[in-house]
Amino acid sequence: MAKPVGFDQKIQLQHLDYIARQASGIDRKNMYEKLDEFLNVDIRGAMVRKHVITMLMKIWYLVPDELKGLRQKALELLPNFSAQDRLVLHWGMTLLAYPFFKDVACELGNLFGLQNEVPSQQIGRKVKGLYGDRRRVEVATTAVLRSIKSWGFIEKNKSNVYTMKEKYEITNTALKLWLAEVVLRVSDYQYMPLEMIPVAQSVFPFQFKVNIREFEHSNFIINRQGLDMQLVGLLALGR
């Protein structure tokens, strides 16, 4: 069975900001109506607009029960953050909502770790290796890349080659811990070495430093092994 894709349209930052600000205290029907009215300015096609609304709802509104606590933390942090810090929250919520987005991000992060330039054909082959050589996979890969480019993390030249912009440094402790929880939830591991969390491929556009003291009074499990190995996990993942 082919792996689901789902991410088939470019997502704009102002649309993510809008739904994140509206996501609390509005019922589902009204949320759809508000989004349709707001997006109509930028997206005239009804079918495309419907697809984008579905994606935005999945990212910020219709989250599964096990992620509602993490979403609530993001909503509490959002009002006090700059546009760049809000981008971290949007990135994390998109990783959680769409495994396809996460896989493309991981492939990009891996390639940028090896080389300065990533041809679009190369990332396309990588993703097709995971999801199959289907037209839908091509469309979705392009949608992810266009979204990430519009968010300001990568650039594309006339030869269809992507380069990475300077990583955004995260300094806010609450935001670092929030993103660390996202990394753990989208990873395939129950525990991760502390030093591996900031360099996870899924969060390649960001740089941040974490120390074990920051994790001790939060929703994390600390597992110390030997003199210098510190593993970090989540209570919800430890069952």
Characteristic key phrases:
globular, 3-stranded antiparallel β-sheet, 2 domains, alpha+beta, 239 residues
Polypeptide structure, described:
The model has no long low-confidence stretch (mean pLDDT 93). A hairpin with a 3-residue loop joins strand 7 (220-225) and strand 8 (229-234). The chain starts with 12 loop residues before the first helix and ends in a 5-residue tail after the last strand. The protein has helices spanning 13-22, 28-39, 46-60, 68-77, 83-97, 99-114, 120-131, 135-150, 173-186, 212-215, and strands at residues 117-119, 154-156, 161-164, 168-169, 191-193, 206-207, 220-225, 229-234. The chain has 2 domains: 1-177; 178-237. The protein is of the alpha+beta class and 239 residues long. Helix 2 crosses helix 3 (46-60), helix 4 packs antiparallel against helix 9 and helix 5 (83-97) packs across helix 6 (99-114). The chain is built from 10 helices and 8 strands. A 3-stranded antiparallel sheet has the order 1-3-2. Strands 5-8-7 form a 3-stranded antiparallel sheet. Strands 4-6 form a two-stranded parallel sheet.
